[in-house]
């Protein structure tokens, strides 16, 4: 059985996160047909700049590194944004990424349990996320965890 911990990202982990996620988000939007290829990388960088203007210290954003509890090996990353300005405090998961060589080993399921625990700890009433329709593996994980389309 695997267990995970969610630890705050360091500055260097955040820099690596951006180097991966900015092009990844651009590709996702191009592949989904939302953006043209030309200018997509720049557009993605602008979006990340708006969402995380203070980087890893941006208020109400939890940028976390996922570690295997036992081995301490990095399993992936997760980015949770919280909005506590309304009566129905909500959380939105922008990114869940499990290292490719560790996928299919139950880490995703454990991460979902741990992020839901974190959401309860933060007093969130709802938790949502976005997944591109063509990402069948991720959709299966979220549906199995009880999330609705």
Could you explain how this protein is built, in words?
The protein is of the alpha+beta class and 149 residues long. The chain has 4 helices and 5 strands. A 5-stranded mixed beta sheet has the order 1-2-3-4-5, with helices on both faces.
What class do helices, strands and sheet pairing give? alpha+beta
Distance between the termini: 28 Å
Unreliable spans: none
Q: Whole-number average pLDDT?
A: 90
The H-and-E topology, N to C, reads as EHHEEEHEH
Main sheet overview: 5 strands, mixed
Measured as a percent range, the helix fraction is 25-40%
How many β-strand stretches?
A: 5
Oligomer: single chain
Shape: globular
Count of alpha/pi helices: 4
Largest sheet, spatial ordering of strands: 1-2-3-4-5
Please tell me how large the radius of gyration is.
15 Å
Proportion of strand residues: 15-25%
Question: Can you give me a brief rundown of this structure?
Answer:
This protein has 149 residues and is of the alpha+beta class. The chain has 4 helices and 5 strands, in the order E-H-H-E-E-E-H-E-H.
What is the topological layout?
Blueprint: E1 4-8, H1 11-31, H2 40-51, E2 61-68, E3 74-83, E4 90-98, H3 107-121, E5 126-129, H4 136-144
Parallel strand pairs: 4-5
Antiparallel strand pairs: 1-2, 2-3, 3-4
Helix pairs in contact: 1-2
List keywords for this structure.
single chain, 149 residues, alpha+beta, 4 helices
């Amino acid at each position: 059985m695997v267990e995970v911990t969610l630890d705050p990202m360091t500055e260097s982990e955040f820099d690596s996160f951006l180097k991966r996620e900015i092009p990844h988000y651009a590709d996702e939007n191009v592949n989904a047909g939302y953006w043209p290829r030309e200018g997509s990388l720049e557009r993605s960088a602008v979006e990340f700049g708006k969402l995380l203007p203070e980087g890893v210290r941006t208020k109400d954003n939890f940028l976390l590194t996922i570690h295997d509890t036992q081995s301490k090996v990095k399993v992936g990353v997760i980015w949770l944004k919280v909005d506590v300005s309304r009566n129905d405090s909500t959380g939105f998961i922008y990114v869940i990424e499990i290292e490719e060589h560790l996928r299919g080993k139950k880490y995703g399921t454990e991460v979902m349990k741990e992020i839901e625990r974190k959401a309860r700890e933060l007093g969130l009433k709802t938790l949502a996320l976005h997944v591109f329709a063509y990402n069948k593996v991720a959709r299966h994980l979220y549906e199995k965890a009880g999330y609705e389309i």
